[in-house]
Amino acid sequence: MIFPDSCRKIVAVGRNFAAHAKELGNAVPKAPILFLKPPTSILQQGKGPIEIPPGVDELHHEIELGVVIGQPGRDIPVNKVSSFIAGYVCALDMTARSLQNEAKKQGLPWSVAKGYDTFTPISALLPKSAIADTQNLELWCEVHGQTWLVDLPLTTSDHRLTGSHVSAATRTRCCSQCLP
Asked: What is the sign, positive or negative, of the torsion defined by CA atoms of 172, 44, 41, 98?
């Protein structure tokens, strides 16, 4: 597998961090909210800056752990999920927030706000063996030597969805060139 060139789709989980959902005035869902980002949104570490499209005046980022699936699969039982994981990437989920808010008001998908080219900056692939416990990781991003947190040190225990819904990040330099 040659990642990320082999990436066919990005499946993301929305509102999985309860405090952030509340901060934005959103209800915390009982089940995961899934949305897609196109593979063209991937920006590999060191390959350039995030490109901010004309008219985007409010750009937000969330630091996430990307779970890289290494083989085809569908309807995978929870007890077999681990065998499909090839590794992890630290990723930023970029959002054109004003566009997302407008789409939500109209009942439209979020794709317009999250799918721009370069809106998913990622680190190099970390092998699955590099992370012993995906439920207990600290979340951070370093940009030009400056550490960015999400208001406070955030760990995977702060995420609402656990078990088969892995969402976290790891202590690696995830995207040193990515924020303006």
From this structure: positive
